[in-house]
Design brief:
Blueprint: H1 2-8, E1 18-19, E2 24-26, E3 31-33, H2 36-43, E4 48-49, H3 57-64, E5 71-74, H4 82-85, E6 91-95, E7 103-104, H5 107-113, E8 118-125, E9 135-142, H6 149-172, E10 188-189, H7 205-214, E11 221-225, E12 228-238, E13 249-252, E14 255-259, E15 264-272, E16 278-279, H8 280-286
Parallel strand pairs: 1-4, 5-6, 7-10
Antiparallel strand pairs: 2-3, 6-8, 8-9, 11-12, 12-15, 13-14, 14-15, 15-16
Length: 313
């Protein structure tokens, strides 16, 4: 959306159409809801195209009927057909990583998961490969401590809009020569699945804390407990304590932590299934018996004195 808004006021271009995903069911009533990009385009008075499949011949014909000279993509998510790649000024893609590192579907999450200290935005001319086209311009962005995928995406979107606005005019007059991507250092990120959010205590606390941040807001990190699924919204790393057993919930002051293969993962913000977001300390106060139980324990009905039968206090 920041890039669309900058393009709408850029003196070097005239927008002839905005392509976005079709409306999707949302909310309790499952009413069709247009994408935020479609809503922004409507406010700007721009024609909106929302083909289910961009590569369909009828979709390509509809786009080419607008007689575009340039296509600009930002987080679109569909393969782009060859006729759009062959426009007079090509198709430029704003990609949220420092290509060739973290090509693919989830570059922002991949950078956090890898522990990268910086990422950025790459503007490249698209070719038939996957994020493999020559680089037009790049901007580096430091990854802050505690950064989530959500906050990093917001910052990168603003950087991308600025970069596009700066580069567009010299690109259109042929003053920029794109450079081929280097062959070394390329990595590929894959689409995320809900199961990717399952925290495995067999990994280190450092890795799990990155996972919590990288998968926020979607698909989200979670643990299976004797009290049911527990969604993890915030966590931090702490040193292990003698006697810790990986996979066991342990007390951390008045809060709650998970013992891992290397260190403890303190559970700062959690949300039980069907409940509200709360601190780890609040969660533990309501379920003091959780300390000493193991991740993956089968849910059990509370006994007459509160904790599930057989659990450890």
């Amino acid at each position: 959306m920041p890039s669309l808004e900058r393009l709408a006021t850029h003196p070097a271009v005239r927008l002839v159409g905005v392509v976005t995903a079709p409306p999707r069911p949302a909310g309790r009533g499952h009413r069709l809801r247009p994408t935020p990009v479609a809503e922004a385009a409507r406010r700007l008075g721009l024609p909106i195209l929302a083909p289910p499949r961009l590569r369909a011949p009828e979709a390509v014909a509809e786009l080419l009927a607008l007689d575009p000279e340039l296509a600009v993509l930002a987080d679109y998510g569909q393969l782009v057909p060859a006729p759009l790649l062959e426009l007079p000024h090509g198709a430029l893609n704003l990609h949220p990583s420092l290509l060739p590192r973290h090509r693919g579907a989830t570059p922002i999450q991949a950078a956090i998961l890898a522990g990268d200290r910086e990422t950025g935005v790459t503007l490249f001319r698209m070719d038939a490969g996957l994020d493999s086209g020559p680089i037009v311009a790049r901007r580096r962005v430091a990854i802050a401590d505690g950064e989530t995928a959500e906050s990093l995406e917001t910052r990168l979107a603003a950087v991308a809009a600025d970069l596009l606005a700066e580069v567009l005019e010299p690109w259109l007059r042929g003053a920029l020569e794109p450079e081929p991507q280097p062959e070394t250092g390329a990595t590929l990120s894959r689409p995320l699945r809900r199961e990717d959010g399952r925290l495995d205590p067999g990994r280190s606390a450092v890795e799990l804390e990155r996972l919590v941040r990288a998968l926020r807001p979607w698909p989200g990190a979670f643990l299976e407990t004797a009290a049911g699924r527990l969604n993890i919204h915030g966590a931090r790393v702490a040193p292990a304590v003698p006697g810790d057993e990986p996979g066991q919930f342990v007390a951390a002051g008045d809060g709650l932590a998970l013992a891992t293969a290397d260190g403890r993962l303190e559970l700062v913000l959690v949300q039980p299934a069907g409940g509200r977001v709360m601190t780890g300390a609040e969660y533990r106060r309501g379920r003091p018996w959780i300390v000493g139980t193991a991740v993956g324990a089968a849910p059990r009905r509370p006994g007459p004195d509160g904790p599930p039968e057989g659990s450890l206090r």
